[in-house]
Design a protein that fits this description.
By secondary structure, this protein is α/β, with parallel strands linked by helices. It has a single domain, classed as Collagenase (Catalytic Domain), CATH 3.40.390. The protein is 52% helix and 13% strand. It contains eleven helices and four strands. Strands 1-2-4-3 form a four-stranded mixed sheet. The longest helix is centred in the C-terminal third of the chain and has 16 residues. It is globular and about 45 Å long. The termini are close together.
Length: 208
């Protein structure tokens, strides 16, 4: 099982994670000091994605879209199409190297948005997202209803912050990947939603 998971993560690294050749050249000196080569930011990102279950990685790789570009540009997610190095990519998350160096949880927000879109409509252009209350399959739709309840209670939302469902999803998923213990402390309902289903290997179909 772990060997198959590692193979899927390596495939994701090869096929869907891209590094802008100027990622360090166009970054601030502090970022250039944090990373010894242009590949280190993407390698750090790959390590942060390690908790994702094999079934989720397989679902991601089964789609034509779903790319991550590590760049000097601000972190964001484009659910449609975006040009990169003379290619047109669909469903693209841009992860800023400066965020990876200073704020890994924040750096994961574009990845969380991509996964939100993936679970909601298999990354279809203009499709709904999981946090909108939609699942790409009946089982995912059931979990989307559970997510809506977790969002309604909003344990992880700081006092006074008006947080959308998409922002809440990005917050809890990225925190789970960086510090699951902290998420369990501040938002046990959100933690159980992820730990018991969507980020649990046993919840997904067996890998072959």
């Amino acid at each position: 099982m772990r060997g198959r998971h590692r193979a899927l993560l390596d495939q994701l690294w090869r096929e869907r994670l891209h590094t802008d050749p100027q990622v360090l050249t166009l970054s601030l000196p502090a970022v250039r000091e944090a990373f010894a080569s242009i590949w280190e930011p993407a390698l750090l990102l790959k390590s942060l994605l390690n908790p994702l279950p094999g079934g989720l990685l397989a679902l991601w790789l089964a789609q034509q879209g779903g790319h991550i570009v590590v760049s000097h540009a601000p972190s964001h997610y484009e659910s449609g199409r975006e040009s990169w190095r003379n290619q047109e990519l669909a469903a693209v998350g841009t992860v800023c190297a400066a965020d990876l160096a200073a704020a890994p949880q924040q750096a994961l927000y574009p990845v969380a948005h991509l996964i939100d879109h993936l679970l909601g409509s298999h990354l279809s252009e203009g499709g709904r997202w999981f946090s909108d209350g939609t699942g790409a399959t009946p089982r995912l739709a059931e979990q989307a209803s559970r997510f809506a309840e977790a969002y309604r209670l909003s344990y992880a939302t700081p006092t006074g912050l008006d947080e959308s469902p998409r922002a809440y999803w990005a917050r809890i998923l990225s925190l789970y990947l960086v510090s699951p213990t902290e998420l369990n402390t501040i938002d046990p309902l959100g933690y159980r939603l992820l730990q018991g289903t969507l980020l649990a290997d046993r919840w997904w179909p067996p890998l072959h």
